[in-house]
Q: What sequence folds into this?
């Protein structure tokens, strides 16, 4: 739709020296699309359309982004998952900001663990927390290899284990930890309650 509007606007401006710059920035955390149009100063109708375009300019931003690297994207109803995430965050008194998920292999998450946390071991999930006040934001890296091996080890359906790990990262962003005494049990209780919300 945006590309069509840009095309129509360019035609209406009817200038050959339009400087058109576009930038698309995509990361685990957020995605947006920005466009600048500079019309010919002699084309007054074009200038009018240009400023109308600026006043209605929209930055397209998706709150939760889903990406994969080196592995197939899991087959999930991402709209339903995003609603679930928002509901879980709401129960914790939080709103959802920019959250980026990256599904990857064991080797990739080991690389991330070494590079950013100085940890030399495999794990199922790494959460980078950028939350501000009551709005949760962050990057969440999930190894689907480890999710599958954990599902086999604990005799759990793969989908349930995947959803548990997905919401585990959200609960971390909500301020729930699992490292101190008794904290793991608290985290597991919140995970189970969250999974019950979607019938798992």
A:
């Amino acid at each position: 739709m945006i590309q069509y509007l840009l095309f129509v606007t360019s035609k209406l401006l009817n200038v050959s020296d339009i400087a058109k710059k576009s930038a698309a920035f995509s990361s685990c955390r957020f995605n947006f699309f920005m466009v600048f149009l500079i019309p010919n100063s002699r084309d007054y109708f074009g200038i009018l359309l240009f400023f109308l375009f600026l006043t209605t300019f929209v930055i397209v931003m998706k709150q939760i982004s889903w990406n994969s690297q080196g592995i197939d994207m899991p087959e999930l109803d991402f709209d339903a998952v995003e609603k679930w995430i928002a509901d879980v965050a709401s129960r914790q008194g939080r709103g959802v900001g920019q959250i980026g998920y990256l599904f990857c292999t064991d080797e990739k998450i080991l690389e991330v663990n070494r590079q950013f946390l100085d940890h030399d071991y495999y794990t199922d999930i790494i959460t980078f927390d950028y939350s501000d006040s009551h709005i949760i934001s962050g990057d969440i890296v999930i190894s689907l290899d480890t999710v599958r091996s954990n599902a086999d080890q604990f005799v759990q359906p793969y989908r349930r284990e995947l959803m548990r790990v997905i919401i585990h990262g959200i609960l971390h962003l909500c301020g729930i930890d699992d490292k101190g005494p008794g904290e793991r049990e608290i985290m597991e209780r919140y995970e189970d309650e969250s999974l019950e919300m979607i019938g798992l």
About this structure: The longest helix spans residues 158-173. Residues 29 and 100 are 4 Å apart (CA to CA).
